[in-house]
Specification:
This protein is an all-alpha fold. The chain has 19 helices and four strands. Strand 1 and strand 2 form a beta hairpin. The longest helix is centred in the last third of the chain and has 33 residues. The chain is globular and about 60 Å long. The termini are far apart. It comes from Novosphingobium album.
């Protein structure tokens, strides 16, 4: 144990993170000890889901914070290849929920899918702790690929389904629904921040296995909480029809087979990119085919959806540099003051918790005045902000000069701008998909949203690979050049989106959404009524 007098900034950050974790656990203990069916006005089951998801995010984001460093420092991949592996892995994490959600909706039910996903994730994180001797010639690297495969498939079964159970605890008309998701959202970001700090600290200062091992322990704790808390879920998340034992085993077998398939696929990143491209073209073709079979208004709503989906890969391609090239840049070219590199990735979830309520308040204020930006305009602002983040980092590099390292202030600045951009785009896009999608395409459209996010993660890997140049090794000059180029281009794209936003808003036909709910059930406006308000349209001025 290091003498407290010798602690540096990283040690203090980790200590504060540990205290915060214990405080969160103490609050959970108080909640668990209460016998009432409700806690602070919400079902006990919400807090079971809160803590289960918190630990799952703790493990996932903790592991993610270390991954690019682990690839370059332990397995000795060059920077370009490591970024491509990172992009392929994170893109697959966002694709598999489509399969997991489908199997849960049709057969398993959400609760069993979450348990199965949690078990796969626990195996995956445990295997990540198997280090071997390092280097690509070490046969243990096959265990590493298998660990990634378990985590990818486990996330597919758990990621979307646990969020669905939150909604099932409340009636559609229950005014507590928004508050419930806000509480759940806090669990997600608390786990992300604490996992990044503690797992990252142990992994970088003591050993990779210790960091990944802590991530695995977190996942097991989340799974235990979820299983023990089953009674508080009030029977929600069960199979839609009674499920025969043999069929249930077959479904689990499908999950295990998917692990084997992903173990092979993750090793061939170019194949992942080709599959994403083919699937994207197929999705676009099908959406256009459906659109041209519809009347004018629902057809134009599909056009608006396609417009918003098209900018998902652009945004996330830049945003997800956080876990890839930006992490390597921070490690090598930033004056970190003794703070381990991975801990900087905790800035984003901390900023989300801090600024999400403020931005929500701002939208409400602007909405009351009738000047809240539309959903397409918010997308444009998100793109401008994510581009501006990289431009600001380039300015920070210029200010530092060639010999000095970039100040840590500029890392905080880029994360702040990117967080604001995320808050302008991500929740707004989810709301838009839900309200604009025709009923018979509702699940498909939501799947397309996550698919576009997956595409963005793969694009992130390609951008990160570009920072390595032809030789594969990142240089400060090359990285700053790439960041400056993509930053200015995406800012320009964002401004263009803002300019055309009024046209896209007209395609959304917000003024007839209420009429459509009543008169055109086939086109699915029952889902549109589930949200309290459309992004960019305050309830006080909602057309009736």
């Amino acid at each position: 144990m290091k003498d407290i007098g010798l602690w540096n900034e990283g040690d203090w950050v980790a200590a504060i993170g540990a205290v915060a974790l214990f405080a969160v656990l103490a609050i959970g203990g108080v909640i668990a000890s209460r016998r009432s069916e409700e806690v602070v006005g919400h079902p006990r089951g919400l807090f079971v889901l809160f803590y289960a998801e918190m630990w799952e995010r703790f493990s996932y984001y903790g592991m993610r914070a270390l991954l690019i460093l682990y690839l370059t420092k332990h397995w000795l991949f060059d920077d370009g290849k490591a970024n491509l592996i990172y992009g392929a892995y994170t893109s697959l994490v966002y694709i598999t929920p489509v399969l997991g959600g489908y199997l849960a909706d049709r057969y398993l039910g959400q609760r069993k899918a979450v348990v199965f996903g949690g078990i796969l994730l626990a195996f995956g994180h445990a295997l990540m702790a198997v280090e071997g001797n390092g280097g690509q010639g070490d046969a243990t690297i096959n265990v590493f690929w298998l660990a990634l495969a378990f985590i990818i498939v486990g996330s597919g079964f758990l990621k979307a389904n646990i969020s669905v159970i939150v909604g099932q605890l409340y009636k559609l008309t229950d005014e507590r629904r928004d508050g419930a998701y806000s509480i759940f959202y806090m669990g997600i970001n608390s786990g992300a921040a604490l996992g990044t700090i503690l797992v990252g600290y142990l992994g970088e200062t003591i050993g990779w296995g210790y960091g990944f091992g802590l991530a695995g322990i977190g996942m097991v704790l989340g799974l235990i909480i979820f299983v023990i808390g089953k009674p508080s879920l009030r029977g929600q998340g069960e199979p839609p029809v009674p499920l025969a034992r043999n069929r249930e085993m077959v479904l689990y077998g499908v999950g295990v087979a998917a692990v084997v398939a992903l173990w092979l696929l993750i090793q061939f990143q170019a194949v992942v990119g080709s599959l994403l491209l083919v699937a994207a073209l197929a999705l676009l073709g099908y959406m256009l085919f459906e659109a041209f079979r519809m009347p004018k208004e629902p057809r134009e709503r599909i056009f608006a959806i396609i417009f918003l989906l098209a900018f998902q890969p652009v945004f996330w391609g830049l945003f997800e540099q956080a876990g890839g090239s930006l992490s390597l840049f921070t490690d090598r070219f930033v004056d970190r003051g003794g703070v381990p590199t991975s801990l900087f990735q905790s800035i984003n979830p901390i900023f989300i918790v801090t600024f999400a309520p403020l931005l929500a308040w701002l939208w409400r204020v602007l909405g009351r005045k009738g000047i809240e930006p539309s959903a397409p305009a918010k997308f444009g602002y998100g793109l401008v902000l994510v581009g501006l983040g990289f431009v600001s980092l380039v300015l920070g590099d210029t200010a530092a000069g060639e010999t000095a390292k970039v100040g840590a202030f500029y890392i905080f600045l880029i994360y702040w701008l990117h967080t604001l951009g995320e808050l302008c785009l991500s929740p707004v896009g989810l709301s838009a998909m839900n309200r604009l999608a025709p009923r018979h395409l509702a699940s498909f459209i939501m799947g397309a949203w996550f698919f576009a996010t997956a595409g963005g993660n793969f694009v992130a890997g390609l951008i990160g690979q570009a920072t390595g140049g032809e030789g594969g090794e990142m240089t400060r000059e090359r990285t700053v050049e790439v960041y400056g180029t993509i930053g200015w281009w995406v800012m320009g794209i964002g401004l263009l989106v803002i300019l055309v936003a009024p046209l896209v808003k007209r395609w959304m036909h917000l003024d007839t959404l209420a009429d459509r709910d009543v008169t055109d059930d086939l086109l699915g406006q029952e889902e549109a009524g589930l949200e309290a308000q459309e992004a960019g349209l305050h309830p006080a001025v909602k057309p009736q």
